[in-house]
Predict the structure of Beta-xylosidase C-terminal Concanavalin A-like domain-containing protein.
Amino acid sequence: MMRRFGWLLGLVLGTAATAGDVENADYRVLLDDLDGRIDFERLPPRAEPGFNLDRPVYSSGAWIGERFVGQQLSPTSTGHDAVTGAPGGPWLRIAGGVPGQNLSVASHRGFGSNALFPLGPAGFPALEARGEGAVAILFDTDQPATGFRIHTDYAAPLGTGPAAQGSVEVSLLARDGQRLGHFSHHPGTGITELGYRLQGAGPGIAGVLIVNTDPGGIAIDDILFAKPRPLG
C-alpha cells in the first residue's frame, strides 16, 4: 500500500517529460532501501550565506558540482541558471563554474540543518543568487534509485497572497551521458521529498542534474544513494 501511495504521489508532484527508464519513487521507501546519504553536516553550522564552494566537492560516494563537462551554462531572464547541451563523452565528468557562482552550504532554517544552495548568476554572497543555480551529482557507482529533499520558497505571510511558484527540473543520466529520464516538478512551498527508481534492465543512474525557476531559489538536503558493495 505504501509503495502504491508513493507512486500516486509521484504523479501529483512530477511527470516524466521524456520517455525514459526511470520512474518516480516514494522517498520514504527509498530511505529504507538505500544505505547512503549526503547531508552536508561535515561542515559546521554557519548562517546564510554560509560557505562558498568554488569548485566541485566530494562527499560520501559522489562528486557534486554545477554541471557536467560538455554542457553550457547561461543565465535566464529570471536570474536563474539554464543548462544546455549534452555531456561530453565518453563518460560523465563533473564540472564547476566561475568563482562565486557554484555552490554554497549554510544552516537552513526550513530543514533545521545544513543544506546545499546552488548559486545563480548574481554570485556569492548575494541573496538573489542563493538557490537559483544548477547542481550536478555524479555517483561513484551506478545507482538503482536515488532521491533528495528540496526546500522551495517560503509560504507568503498571511494576507499577502500566494507566493509565486516555479518549477524544479531533474534529469537522470547514465554513465555515458544518455538521459534515462527527465522530470518537471511544481512542488509549491516548503519541503518536498523527491525520489526516482530505475525500471527494468539497462544502465544505472550515474548522474543527476537539477535546475529550477523557483522565485526564492531552492535548497537541497539528504541525497540518497546505495553505497558500493564490498568486494569478496
Notes: The CA atoms of residues 105 and 116 lie 5 Å apart. DSSP finds two helices and 19 strands in the chain. The chain has a mean pLDDT of 88.
